[in-house]
Design goal:
Distance between the termini: 68 Å
Strand order of the largest sheet: 1-2
Number of helices: 7
Helix content: over 70%
Shape: flat
Order of helices and strands: HHHHHHEEH
Radius of gyration: 21 Å
Mean pLDDT: 81
Low-confidence stretches: 1-7
Largest sheet: 2 strands, antiparallel
Length: 150
């Protein structure tokens, strides 16, 4: 009843999924690119040419799903509500310009859900990650500056 080929494909899919996950995280961590390169090199050593071809197909499929997920507009999250406590403390114009390369109207449209081309503007999953990382980065800068003063 057990199909060894099916188990092999599941194992290969899990290894490729781990690689894709590491690739997604590589933009977040400082040495993320090295981690991805090392894992890819390790995987490349143990796979046969046939496994590499199958792995390539799996990787393309997983990356396409990942890209699609990142592009989904998140109208289910009320960002304005989430930022209420810090909106007067931080500069959203600064975040728009330096983290997104956009002007302040772009970020305010998404925060307020303003209709643009007949649809409410919203952040994508990828943009939410950037916003989250921007807030962490600003928090770190504030903490570091605080330590310099004290």
């Amino acid at each position: 009843m057990n199909n060894p080929n099916l188990l092999y494909i599941i194992d290969l899919r899990e290894k490729i999924q781990e690689l894709v996950d590491k690739m997604s995280e590589s933009n977040i961590t400082p040495n993320g690119r090295k981690v991805v390169d090392d894992y890819f090199a390790e995987l490349n050593k143990i796979l046969t040419p046939e496994e590499k071809r199958e792995g390539g197909k799996i990787m393309r499929e997983l990356l396409a799903k990942n890209r699609e997920f990142r592009r989904v507009k998140r109208t289910d999250i009320n960002i304005k509500e989430k930022l209420i406590e810090i909106q007067d403390i931080i500069s959203l114009s600064y975040i728009a310009k330096y983290y997104f390369g956009k002007d302040k109207s772009w970020i305010y449209q998404r925060i307020n859900g303003t209709c643009v081309n007949g649809k409410p503007a919203a952040f994508t999953n990828e943009e939410l990650d950037i916003l989250s990382n921007a807030l962490k980065d600003i928090g770190t800068k504030i903490s570091d500056t605080s330590l310099l003063i004290h």
